[in-house]
Amino acid sequence: LTPKSMAGRRVLITAGPTREEIDPIRYISNYSSGKMGYAIAREARLRGAQVTLVTGPTALTLPCGIDVVPVNSAEEMRRAVLERLERTDVVIKAAAVADYRPKVRAAAKVKKGASELVLELEKNPDILAEVGAMKGDRVVVGFAAETHDLIANATKKLTGKNVDMIVANDVSQEGAGFNVDTNIAKLLLRDGTVEELPKMGKDELAGVILDRITTLAEAKGRA
Ligand code: C5P
Question: Where, by residue number, does CTP bind (predicted)?
């Protein structure tokens, strides 16, 4: 593949965690660093793509030359993605979206009181499943971070969310997943192919993921 193999492609990437507010000073979130999504954004830009990065809060330096859309909650991320879907060729959902959010966000700080406090949660929308349902001839890629039954769970996401590829990684393995610079991934495709990749840097993995996306886009006539 040539360095400009994604020239002109409009690529939307989500990265990082989401924050679900409990009150004005507290939230629920996860350990996602955003490193994988940012690495993909940088690499896609190097390959000539027009990149939009919808990012939850991270400590990373924003890549140059791309359109950055900062968001906090899953609902904000959903809106940012759906608003831009029409003018997008490739969607890569590397964000660790919180599955649940507090049912009520208190307008004022929740004060210390009784010895127990019950926090009621409600389900967040599944952005990837929504995008998958209306993907048309776009290439849509999701991630699956699992601690057990990796292939079975990732296959369920591949078909259940109607996406073209799942990047699956067993986050219980050392050197894979959240907050490290390496990853050990398996790429699952809809034809049943499972490509097992060795441990590699997230930058290098970003390149492999974009190689496969370019092939998928070519097959759909989107490259
Ligand atoms: O179901 P699970 O959260 O493990 O699926 C992971 C994939 O789905 C990731 O690509 C993630 O970005 C996406 N996702 C989403 N919206 C959610 C939950 C997950 O887009 N509410």
Answer: 99, 109, 125-128, 143, 157, 161
Which numbered atom of ligand 1 lies nearest the CA of 128? 20
Provide the pLDDT for residue 174. 82
Q: Please report the pLDDT score of residue 223 as a whole number.
A: 57
The three-point CA angle 168-176-127 to 5° equals 40
Cβ of 142 below 6 Å from ligand 1: yes
Domain ranges of the chain: 10-101+119-219
CATH topology of domain 10-101+119-219: Rossmann fold (3.40.50)
pLDDT above 70 coverage of the chain, percent:
98
- Residues 169-204: b if buried by 16+ CB within 10 A, e if exposed: bbbeeeebbbeeebbbbbbbeeeeeeeebeebebbb
**CA dist., res. 46 & res. 192, Å (int):** 30
Higher pLDDT, 175 or 56: 56
- For the complex shown, is ipTM > 0.85? yes
Is residue 210 annotated as involved in ligand binding?
no
**φ, ψ (nearest 5 deg) of residue 122:** -130, 160
Is the minimum distance from the CB of 45 to ligand 1 under 6 angstroms?
no
Spatial separation of the C-alpha atoms in residues 78 and 173, rounded to whole Å: 30
Q: Is 72 a catalytic residue?
A: no
Nearest atom in ligand 1 to the alpha carbon of residue 142 is 10
Which tens digit of pLDDT belongs to each residue from 141-174?
A: 999 998 899 999 999 999 999 999 999 998 888 8
